[in-house]
Amino acid sequence: MSVPARGFGSPAFQGSDCSPYKLPKGATFDQTASSKADNTIQIFYRTPDGNQGTLVVPFDAIPATCVDPSVQVVVVSAQKADKEVQTSMCKFVGDVLTGRVQLPPEKAKYFDRKFAEEWYRKTCLGTK
Length: 128
Known about the structure:
The chain contains 3 helices and 5 strands. It is of the alpha+beta class. It has one domain. It has a 3-stranded antiparallel sheet with strand order 3-4-5, with helices on one face. A two-stranded antiparallel sheet has the order 1-2. 10% of the residues are buried.
C-alpha cells in the first residue's frame, strides 16, 4: 500500500495493509518479537483450546489499517519502540562525534569514526 504525497514533492509513503492480520477468536498473547530489518512482527499466541500459534505481521504495517485491535496495539508498540531505540542511538553517536561524550579507552579503539559519521548522516540526518 502506498499513499502518494501530491504537490509536496516528497516520495509516496510506503507501508503494508494490516487488515488481513487477525488473531483467532479468544487467543491470548504469549509474547512478541519484531525485526525491522526482516520487516516482521511475530505475535506468539495461545488459543482457548490450548493450541499455540504465531501470527507474522509486516513491521511496516500501517496501524490505522489493522482491523484487529490486539494486532494494532502490538504494531503500534513495536514501531514506537523501534523509533525510541533509533532516537537514543542517534543521540549517543551524535554526542560522541561532537565530543560531548567520551568513550572509555577500552571501547574507543573499536569506534570507527568514518563509519559512525556516515551512519549518523544517513540514519539520523536523512542525508547521504
